[in-house]
Amino acid sequence: MKLDALILAGGESRRMGGGEKGLLPLAGRPMICHLIERLRGRVGHVWIGCRSEQRGYRDLADGILEDAGDSTGPLSGISRALGALDCSHLLIMPCDTPLVSPVSLDRMIALAQAHPDSLVVVQDGDYLQTLHLIVPVAKAASLEAFRETGRRAVRGWLEAEGISSAGATVRRSS
């Protein structure tokens, strides 16, 4: 399995008054840097998905994947990455989760290795963490077909793939 990571940082941060959410300081460093540090050594490359005007993320990771003009939320960035990167699987995290547990990352990766054709999604109790997932690049066509219906919600795509928050043990689809 050739695993890369995509940190989603393209949001407009409206609930936080705008600005660059991932660049907010935490323990003297930008929040996103803590996440990048946790991902290093677990993935081949760390990429940041953001809008073209978000200049502060440059040089923090292995590269930037700018949102295309038709960006309509996280699925746009995920789709773009699945088509652009040279990996077999993509670990996706939002930029505002700097303290994600290394144990959780390792468990996600182990599950993806054990089930390489399946999506791996974190479930926290009864809540599905829809932006903490590992996606096989082979799911790119499924994602594009879902986006062509005009739907934009990550949860909707995951449900179309057979993943729901109906049971605490649901973590992947076949």
TrEMBL record:
The keyword Magnesium applies. GO terms for molecular function: molybdenum cofactor guanylyltransferase activity. Keywords: Cytoplasm, GTP-binding, Magnesium, Metal-binding, Molybdenum cofactor biosynthesis, Nucleotide-binding, Nucleotidyltransferase, Transferase. SUPFAM superfamilies: Nucleotide-diphospho-sugar transferases (SSF53448). It is an enzyme of class 2 (transferase). The keyword Chaperone does not apply. PANTHER family: MOLYBDENUM COFACTOR GUANYLYLTRANSFERASE. This is Molybdenum cofactor guanylyltransferase. It comes from Marinobacterium aestuariivivens.
